[in-house]
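Annual report, structural modelling task.

Input specification for the guanine complex:
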Amino acid sequence: MHASDIEGDLSTVLVTEAEIHAKLAEIARRIETDYAGKDVLLVGVLKGAIMVMADLARELRLHVETDWMAVSSYGAGTKSSGVVQIRKDLDSDLTDRHVLIVEDIIDSGLTLSWLLENFASRGAASIEVCALLRKPEAAKVEIECRYVGFDIPNEFVVGYGLDYAEKYRNLRDVGVLAPHVYS
Ligand SMILES: O=P(O)(O)OC[C@H]1O[C@H](OP(=O)(O)OP(=O)(O)O)[C@H](O)[C@@H]1O
Ligand SMILES: Nc1nc2[nH]cnc2c(=O)[nH]1
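The model returned the following structure:
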């Protein structure tokens, strides 16, 4: 069975692999300009950001370091609990670092709002956010996000790192699951 057969579980493809790669290339050019002459620390938020991190980092013609943070507010379901837990903290000291947080999605904004406040106390020189997807209609808090890939409708999406019950992260496109998957 080929991995792309799981694409059959999608009712709608919202963003294709090709669109994602074109957008990450655009964002990478902006980051190269904005951070010229600076060392950047890319902080990926596990697990959803694995694909964005891998593709964005390889697209950048800059020296970057990478680190990972694991936080969770979603558990196994499709609704944010609003309670953010640290599952894995950073290995790096953020003092005087130019930090670019790499996220797959901003939904309610609660995860990033919490992360930004947490990072602000660690002495970074700058903190910015890059998110591949954003759901404007779902925002419970406003997040200043310097680099946004796509604004999408307020629907639960999977693929390109985003899961449903830990599955579908390996889909190449981003889409909405068909109703039969939930039953
Ligand atoms: O804006 P919010 O409503 O806070 O949602 C965004 C967060 O939700 C997802 O993580 P999740 O907790 O599902 O963990 P995962 O990345 O390990 O799947 C996603 O990766 C973001 O971190
Ligand atoms: N898989 C998935 N995780 C999320 N976390 C916050 N929003 C979403 C979403 O739409 N899909």
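The chain is about 25% helix and 30% strand.
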